[in-house]
Amino acid sequence: MKIKDLKTNNIETFKNDVCQEFYSACKTSNNLKIGLEIERLPVYKKTNEAVNYFGENGLYRLLRQIAYNDEWRYISDLTFINGLQKGQATITLEPGGQTEYSLTPQKTIFELKEEVKTLDKKLSSIMEYLGISMLEYPISPKTNGKNIEIIPKRRYQTMAKYMNGERCFSMMRETAGIQVAIDYIDEQDAIKKLKLSMMLAPFSTAIFANSPIRCGQITGYKSTRALAWLKTDENRCGLINEKLFNDNFSFEDYVNKVLSIPLLFIQREDKIIEIGGKINFETFLKNGYNDFSATKDDYSLHSTLFFPEVRLKNIIEIRNQDTQKGEFKYCIPAMYKGILYNEKTTNNIFELLKEFSYDDFVKLRFEVPKFGLETKIKNKKLIDYAKIILEEAYIGLKEQETNEEKFLEPIIELTNDGLCPADLILKEWQNCRFNIDNLIDYVRLK
User: Fold this and answer.
1) Would the CA dihedral through 258, 259, 264, 267 be positive or negative?
2) How far apart are CA 71 and CA 217, in angstroms?
3) Exposed site from 11, 138, 203, 324, fewest CB < 10 Å?
4) How far apart are CA 343 and CA 32, in angstroms?
5) Each residue of 92-139: pLDDT tens digit?
6) What are the beta bridge partners of residue 2?
7) Which residues of 378-416 are buried (b: 16+ CB within 10 A; e: fewer)?
8) How far apart are alpha carbons 125 and 396 in whole angstroms?
9) Is the pLDDT of residue 8 over 70?
10) CA distance linking residue 368 with residue 223, whole number of Å
11) Can you tell me the distance from the alpha carbon of 63 to that of 71, in angstroms, rounded to the nearest whole number?
12) Largest interatomic CA distance in the chain
């Protein structure tokens, strides 16, 4: 589909077509699933330095070997492999070589956990042979991003050129997170879940803060990964806009926000056409760029370069948590499933957070990476709200009668002790006498 003239009705048609994709993604209430994406940091076992893409035992060889052993299909950019796909599941590389599992959506967290275990088992022998291990840690503990090259994927290389936040360099090359995918029933349900997930974002960041050490140094932040995202690109990151926190947000409002974002590039066949933020997508839609007219594929690509804390797609994509070690990684989907798939719990959390304004959430977003659960909010500390949020999530899961509430127990116990995962890292840092290689052994995938 190409937009070639400037008439307003054509622009409205374009927006309606995009909104229709959201409507088409709606599920029935008895067919809601949950998805999970887990990013990890690959390192060489001998040195604990970040794994290169090229080289005898690099990430290119790792992907080829996985595909050969287990019949995955290549995902490539020109001649360079940057991911694998089998069914709905993918294994892909982030800009600095971070490895991401994107799992097949499932009805329960038990099924997600089983899929992760199966993938880990299949990959373990290959990684052992190549001398590679994965770290369940959210920011490079040893290798500075200056020594990590962007993988040969043109999209990432163009992003690195034009996204100019002072910590974008670190975000792209060093960080790893966990994302949760939530289904919606209709537009009202989607916006409600989008809004509540966005309100929960700073609380979730604090509860699961897990990155106090970067490149062998204590940073003074509970989530250095979240700090990197704060200063990546102010046009693309954050809380979408204030209108979301009111009662009249819609699919079209989300599309309008995406249209307002500066356009970095488009792709025609195998060629990247760099635009570099000179115009936003709405202007491209109205006027074109040079000899190029806007297409739905252009919009789809552009929308993936929007990085709010929570993103609207054919699912609600919740994006703002540090990668976790061991059982803590399953606490994240458990919290959101308990809250967002139980109407009573959803309403209780709205009631809990209704006293906060949009400006309060903006303030929280900027303070939480440093102070975590100790962040002051109104006349309380964030931990007071975190305990209630987790308790409500536990009840919400228990009422679903799937026994998934047990996945919340590790984080509930830790939070009730006044701690977050970052505090465990700092304790281990002391125990290992501030030796970064010993700390890496602690966060290495077993």
Assistant:
1) positive
2) 41
3) 11
4) 13
5) 999 999 999 999 999 999 999 999 999 999 999 999 999 999 999 999
6) 295
7) eeebbbebbbebbbbbbbbbbeeeeebbebbebbbebbe
8) 39
9) no
10) 8
11) 11
12) 67
